[in-house]
Amino acid sequence: MPRHYLDHASTSTLRPAARAAVVAALEAAPGDPARLHEDALAHRAAIERAREHVAGLLGARPREVVFTSGATESIVTAAWGAAARQGGPAHQVVTAVEHSAVRESADRAGPVTVVGVDRHGRVDADAVLAAVTPTTALVHVQWGNHEVGTEQPVTDVVAGCRARRVLVHVDAAQAAGRVPIAFAELGADLLSVSAHKLGGPPGVGALLVRRGRRLPALFVGGDQERARRAGLENGPAIAGFGAAAAELAASGRLAAEAAEQRRLAARLAAGASALPGVELLGHPTLRLPHLVCLAIAGVEPQPVLLGLDRAGIAAHSGSSCSSEVLEPSPVLAAMGVDAQRSLRLSVGWDTTDADVDAAVAALDGVLAGLRRLGGGQASETGTA
Description:
Aspartate Aminotransferase, domain 2, alpha/beta, single chain, about 40% helix, 2 domains
């Protein structure tokens, strides 16, 4: 049975160019990029080329790109570093639909104000700015939501924070590689991304730090990344990240991929929403191009996922940070909709119409079968 991968919001397919770059780096002669011999300098040059490619994709200066292990580390560095530069626990502002990495990092850094959202999962920029106090160390705002795809008023939040002279961090993990990002024009102080979300390898990401901003390093013990992140760089993964970024930054490539993903996601949403008891969640127009979140009435998510998997469809449900149990979604709860019964389908750079057609047909069959069996209700322990 052919497989149809529709979970690109979790992690996307590795691009051939990124795979080739990783393999080439692994097959090269060994060398610590911090050393001065020829083999080491070759690795240093490869890392700096990748830095230029990532900066080019995100509209930043190369020196503003700090390579990390992924968006989670970047987020933790931003939250902890903003508090540390203020000399201890410091107030942070988050929206109610931020990723768990943002929510938990802010909670551990000091007092937090959570700003609510509307039924579409969109925050009001004025409400975010009203939560800023004289002790606020950092404001977090995601570019687009990781569960329902709703885009946030990032430009307005960033402009308001700059006017108030408070640091602002943008979680762009879902947006990078799918919408144009111009870090320099945006004016944010910090921005986090992961390579694996846009077709790069896992285990690498970046924190963009605006020129002139200083954050204490989360990892210490070495001068790597200009003393901003200690430890031997993951050269092969960084090379793959750079290759993926270079491909997306090529003339017209990002716009073309985004348009195709938006078309496929619209077909997916239309086909699924036409099924009985299925409703599209998130903002109807202000949304990322690749993500479709569905409310499914009367059926528990676990048997839906199992049924789809048996039909060859890879999908996701529930809290996006949960891996072993289908926990209720804090994002959906904040929106005031059913947090227990949802299905997330997401397309990527290599998704086809056949994948979409297979997903809609499989969902139709799975839901009909479960409802015939009495709703596919799961027990309180999470088993069907």
